[in-house]
Amino acid sequence: MSRQPIVALAATLAVTLFLSASPGVGAETLRIGMQADPATLDPAQSASFVDRVALAAVCDKLIDLDAKLSFVPQLATEWSWADDGLALTMKLRPGVVFHDGEPLDAEAVRFNLERNKTATYSRRQSELKPVRGLVVVDPLTVRFELSEPYAPLMAQLADRAGMMVSPKAARELGEKMTNRPVCAGPYKFVEWVPQDRIVFERFERYWNAGAIHIDRVAYLPVPDDTVRLANLRSGGFQLTERIAPTDLATVRGDPRVRLYESPSVAYRVLSVSVGGEAGKTPLGSNPKLREAFELSLDRVVINQVAFDGVFIPSNQPEAPGTPYYAKAFPVPPRDLARAKALVAESGFKRVPATLLISTDPLDNRVAQIIQAMAGEAGFDIKINVVEAATLLGRLKSGAYEISLLIWSGRSDPDANISIWVACDGFVNWGRYCNPKLDDILRRARSTIDADQRAKLYADAATIYLAERPYLFMYHLKWFWGATRKLTGFTPHPDGIARLQGLRLAE
Question: Is residue 318 within 8 Å of 304, Cβ to Cβ?
């Protein structure tokens, strides 16, 4: 027997033993295998995709997205824009309470907006920058007032900026809400053992209690794809995210489990530090070397070798074929001769660079292909693998040279583009800044005319694609595996499992 199956078996037994010994985690618990442990469970502090996976259990939003990325009611039941685009009015759902029993009313929404905009630890500030304030029209009506038209606001309120936390709990906990969330979602927080488990239990006073049929949910971080799949097939997990493309045939052939798949707005991107101390490297300080680095890579081959061809090679944050994809800039083919020439022009015989990646085995596979391809052009790529929390800390501090990152994608193009390349983009960890680009992005946010926005985002692409602080690599597809005892699961393009409507058979 090879080492990999032995490791998978040992990990499966470890998860099974843990579950049988864990207090409160029993037959009525939905056990979800996730790829990494979240960094925080406070929507204000969150900056990673894995946070959103667990937050879906505990924090409802003002609005949600359906499986076609349309906005649908959640904590708000209806909304309307002012004719001049400078105000958004929302009606709140009556009778909603937070997990601590406090009412979710207009004052609570006002508190959340102020916290997101002003708390020193908030990661939502740039997303809500155009929002001047919130007017409490009546106890169940709020009006967001804007300094300028801001088309992406709806998408922000369908994400972490729209997740409401209890004002009472937030005042008491402050930054400590990171591991003690108090929201208004279907499940309330029980415990979080880092790198081990996060457990929630059903909130009996949930506004949509009739849609919640499972008593408890436990999220279990298991970075290894093989181990997650082994636990799904053995019954240790009832649902697991991110089935590896190379394992799709195995899942389809197992009568005990069911495969779900969905198109995805998510993508992988290589971030290059170009500002601050970390940007004082050959790659960070020289756009020509970044051009050479991109030309050394073959996105189509990476997709075929690493993902059996199931993903979509891409060089932009909007996927090919979507309305905001800049058609004038298709995916560049590999040009090894040009890459070598640009390296030679730079005066380097070999260009050293360190690629920071997560423990995701697929990331490691991609990193090794990048290492080999770039090596042919004259780059000596060292791969540095770190776990999720360490990776996020390094990124936030800007202490990296190149990193392979995931963005889970949004329904509005601004939240796929500006977050990286705007000077104040909330995940612009590479410290890139171009005032001309910022002005174009500002104008794109300020109109709801789709054709005008598409033109402006294409203008933006002419700048960031040439300067290459980010190399967008490929768009994903989401693959989930579930026991056939689980019913009611609907895959969403944002990669987040909604727990409403799920049932577990005896």
Answer: no
* pLDDT (mean) for 356-365: 90
Domains of the chain: 1-59+185-256+484-506 (3.40.190.10), 60-175 (3.90.76.10), 266-476 (3.10.105.10)
Instruction: Give me 373's structure tokens.
Output: 């391809």
pLDDT for 12 equals 47
Single out the residue of 181, 187, 180 nearest to residue 216, CA to CA.
187
Element (H, E) at 260: strand 257-272
Distance CA 444, CA 252 (A): 43
**Which pLDDT value is given to residue 3?**
41
pLDDT of amino acid 13: 46
**Strand, helix or coil at 312?**
strand
Q: Which residue has the tokens 């879906």?
A: 56
Radius of gyration of the chain (CA): 23
Confidence check: pLDDT of 225 > 50: yes
Report residue 168 as tokens: 């009472």
* 338 pLDDT above the threshold of 90: yes
Q: How far is CA 385 from the centre of its chain?
A: 19
Distances from the Cα of 58 to the Cαs of 95, 165, 187, 291, 503, in angstroms? 18, 10, 5, 43, 18
* CB contact set of 236 (below 8 Å; sequence gap of 6+): 12, 15, 16, 19, 31, 33, 230
In what helix (H) or strand (E) does residue 403 lie, and over which residues does it extend? strand 402-407
In whole angstroms, what is the distance from residue 294 CA to residue 298 CA? Answer: 8
pLDDT for the residue numbered 309:
94
Global pTM?
0.80
Name the pLDDT band for 128 (thresholds 50, 70, 90).
very high
